[in-house]
Amino acid sequence: MKVEIYSDIACPWCHVGKRRFEQALAAFPGAGDVEVVYRPFQLDPHAPEEPLPHREVLAAKYGPQSVAMDDHITRLGADEGLTFDFDTVVENNSLLAHRLLRFVLERYGREAQARLKGRLLEAHFGEGLDIGDREHLTDAAVTVGLDRDPVAAFLDGGDLHDEVLDEIEEARQRGVTAVPTFVFEGQWAVQGGQEPATFLKILQQVAAETEAGAGAAEAGTEAGSGSGEACADGACAV
């Protein structure tokens, strides 16, 4: 079974969704046959390429409700063992980080990509990592066991820029408008950071459908919310 996870490092729900999906996968008997690949998506492709304090950015977009939004996801994250320290979060354009994740997928494979994805989310939301800073990204890659020199050399160049933008555009054409979005076997799409029990049920259903040789279905088995330009329960939407 192939699972493609469209997400953005700048999205707090992607951090929660990754943890919950991994919990479900750990309880799924067929986990060894599941291939997980992280795909790029940008909630704000026009974000400036400069570090800005998260609190200021969110307040400019949503006003006073931004504090409640941060408090809500902080509490949910704590329930999953995740740390959200929004006073230290630095916002930046996420394209460079997505390019790095694509590079790691191609050079080191899916497991290395997943480790780096987790580290970037953890450090961005809990340790003030700047996802647009080459040194920060290189250090994050080294932390999860990757080689510093090839990572640093890649980040100093322009490789995979167009390829990642094409992937993001392809996601939009496939109907992805909020993240995280989980696409199972290229057919069934589930939106939002669902509860582990929900993810487990979906994995079981998709496995059963695949084993039965079911025909192609429309991608659109959606769950969760995400309408509007905000991070509502379950997902962040453009």
Structure, explained:
- The protein has 238 residues and is an alpha+beta fold.
- It has 2 domains: 44-173, 3-Layer(aba) Sandwich (Glutaredoxin); 175-238, no CATH class.
- The chain has helices spanning 12-26, 54-62, 65-79, 95-108, 110-126, 134-143, 148-156, 161-173, 196-211, and strands spanning 2-7, 35-40, 52-53, 90-91, 178-179, 181-184, 188-191, 231-232, 235-237.
- The strands form 3 sheets. A 4-stranded mixed sheet has the order 2-1-6-7, with helices on both faces.
- Helix 1 links the parallel strand 1 and strand 2.
- Helix 1 packs across helix 9 (196-211), helix 5 packs across helix 6 and helix 6 packs antiparallel against helix 7 (148-156).
- It is globular and about 50 Å long.
- The two termini are 28 Å apart.
- Residues 214-229 have low confidence and may be disordered.
Keywords:
single chain, 238 residues, alpha+beta, Glutaredoxin, 2 domains, 4-stranded mixed beta sheet, 3-stranded antiparallel beta sheet, 9 helices, globular
Outline the fold blueprint.
Blueprint: E1 2-7, H1 12-26, E2 35-40, E3 52-53, H2 54-62, H3 65-79, E4 90-91, H4 95-108, H5 110-126, H6 134-143, H7 148-156, H8 161-173, E5 178-179, E6 181-184, E7 188-191, H9 196-211, E8 231-232, E9 235-237
Parallel strand pairs: 1-2
Antiparallel strand pairs: 1-6, 3-4, 5-9, 6-7, 8-9
InterPro entries: DSBA-like_thioredoxin_dom (IPR001853), Thioredoxin-like_sf (IPR036249)
GO molecular function: oxidoreductase activity
Protein name: DsbA family oxidoreductase
